[in-house]
Amino acid sequence: MTNTVRFTKMQGAGNDYIYVDTLLNNIPDPASAAIRWSAPHTGIGADGLVLIGRADGAEADFTMRIFNADGSEALMCGNAARCVGKYLYEKGITGKTLLRLLTPSGVKLLRLRVGAGNVVESVTVDMLAPVLADPGLLAAPGGSMREGRVVAGGRAFSGTFVSMGNPHFVIFADNAEAVDVARWGALIERLPLFPCRCNVEFASVMADGLLRVRVWERGSGVTMACGTGACATAVAAVLTGRAPRAARVVMDGGTLGVEWSAADGHVYLSGPAEFVFEGEAQLA
Predict the structure, then answer these.
(1) Half-sphere exposure at residue 79, Cβ-oriented, CA atoms within 13 angstroms
(2) What is the mean pLDDT of residues 42-51?
């Protein structure tokens, strides 16, 4: 007999996931569920599956696990974290506007801005400090790279490595709109330089100072937005002298605010989160 699971589809700047409250629903094989449900024509259609749970210890209030559309588990997603905050508050699961969310990349602090009708209008996520050197994620001297040269598919690229709990390689181009993200992102993601594969951002600085970013997400492909990618790009822009510490990042699905604080070294991600629809899905 087939079991059914209640789900909510949400999106942040077009980065859409399927959200399931594990306090009410048991997902015994989330990797396979993510693959089936994320499929655009035969499933619900999404960038992946997010499981929401209640934290066991005192360090956090709730937990978040993310499974990409290919079934791989992600370490962190800023857009998903914002959606989780909105979900928990508007579903009446919590009345807090300051939440501690436990993820595989640590505890993230969510600040909810609540407007009329108790609607969460935006969420700011403390993404903690960026990691600029990690030999486990980057097979380069010292595990770091700033505007370093890589070659993929016979073409050379210059990029900067930034980890926001997951690895990113940020490539600045004259015009991000003209880049074939699907082609080059897929090749760069799997270079031997990245032992755990990598998210890839193609960015350019617009005339008004905004950062235009297009994303290839590890495990999901081209997505309309990526919260950690927006943060990584903003950090890379500061490191290479292209932008100030507070920036607006324009992605295919919307605009996010990012600030790399000089006071505490943390990166703060702000933006909206929206409900799309709810329904039931079958477990295999």
Answers:
(1) 30
(2) 97
pLDDT band for position 275 (50/70/90)? very high
Indicate if the pLDDT at residue 37 is higher than 90. yes
Mean pLDDT, the chain, whole residue set: 96
Amino acid at 206: M
- Active site annotation includes 198: no
Which residue is it, tokens 């949400």? 10
Q: What are phi and psi of 129, to 5 degrees?
A: -85, 140
What is the average pLDDT across 31-57?
Answer: 96
CA distance 27 to 76: 19
Work out the pLDDT band at 2, boundaries 50, 70, 90. low
Query: What is each CA distance from 202 to 23, 171, 224, 249, in whole angstroms?
Result: 38, 5, 13, 12
Nearest alpha carbon to residue 284 among 10, 108, 37:
37
Q: How many Å apart are CA 6 and CA 159, to the nearest integer?
A: 42
CA distance 4 to 165: 33
Q: Helix, strand, coil % (nearest 5) of the chain?
A: 20, 40, 40
**Catalytic, out of 83, 198, 226, 231:** 226
Residue 172 host element (H or E): strand 167-172
Candidates 77, 83, 198, 231; catalytic one: 77
| Cβ-Cβ contacts under 8 Å for 1 (sequence gap 6 or more) | none
CA distance 15 to 260: 22
Q: Which tokens hold the place of 27?
A: 């997902």
* Both structure tokens of 183: 């082609």
Q: Cα 123–127–129 angle (5° rounding)?
A: 150
Closest CA to 230 of 34, 12, 10, 66: 12
Closest CA to 12 of 233, 243, 228, 202: 228
Is pTM, for the whole model, over 0.90? Answer: yes
